[in-house]
User: Which sequence fits this backbone?
């Protein structure tokens, strides 16, 4: 099984931690970087090949990971000369990728079964599978519905339930047909194109542990929770 890890971003929202380090290499706990945890998980799940899409401070990532042999994997690299969006780096890799593969961000902590995402993607026949997570948002205000300057409905401090993308996807190589290598392509653009063509993505619903390390408070939470969740996150790794 093959995975592509997107690790080319500048990590602007996580500054100052990312001033000198690429975001996937910021430390979690006393011994591990985020990217190391992800690679250990992928290897434990049966992935044998991983491509790292690097850009900002990419040489540091390359020096840290090497060829991946320390985790029993074959790791190669694709370098972004300019930002290409979430899915854009895959267009330059297309000839190096198998028919179906996993794509994921390099800055998440989760006990998601990556191999099962890819298996379910293959079984679904969908062009894209999106791992999703349930979120609830509490609105701290009374919400009004108006029509022609008249209030027609009112809800006091409602909660909204919705599902978000976890930043982990099963993708089929043919889904990238028609897009131009070297040009930016975002996840949002790809999904909207699939919906317009009536070829919708498949949703993989997940209810375990998931943390997207996007901001300093997320990073602080990850470090606070890692000690108690280490056996969950690195089981079998």
Assistant:
């Amino acid at each position: 099984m093959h995975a592509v890890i997107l690790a080319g971003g500048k990590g602007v929202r996580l500054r100052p931690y990312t001033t000198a380090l690429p975001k996937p290499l910021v430390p979690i706990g006393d011994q591990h970087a985020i990217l190391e945890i992800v690679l250990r998980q992928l290897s434990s799940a049966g992935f044998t090949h991983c491509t790292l899409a690097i850009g900002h401070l990419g040489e540091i990532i390359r020096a840290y990971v090497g060829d991946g042999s320390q985790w029993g994997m074959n790791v190669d690299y694709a370098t972004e000369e300019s930002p290409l969006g979430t899915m854009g780096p895959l267009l330059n890799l297309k000839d190096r990728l198998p028919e179906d593969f996993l794509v994921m961000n390099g800055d998440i902590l989760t006990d998601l079964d990556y191999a099962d995402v890819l298996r379910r993607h293959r079984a679904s026949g969908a062009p894209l599978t999106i791992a999703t997570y349930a979120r609830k948002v509490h609105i701290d205000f009374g919400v009004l519905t108006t029509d022609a300057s008249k209030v027609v409905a009112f809800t006091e401090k409602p909660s909204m339930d919705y599902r978000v993308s976890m930043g982990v996807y099963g993708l089929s190589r043919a889904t990238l047909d028609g897009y131009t290598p070297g040009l930016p392509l975002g996840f949002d653009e790809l999904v909207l194109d699939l919906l317009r063509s009536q070829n919708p993505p498949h949703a993989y619903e997940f209810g375990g542990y998931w943390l997207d390390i996007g901001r300093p408070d997320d990073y602080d939470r990850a470090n606070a929770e890692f000690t108690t969740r280490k056996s969950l996150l690195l089981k079998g790794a």
Observations:
- The CA atoms of residues 55 and 81 lie 7 Å apart.
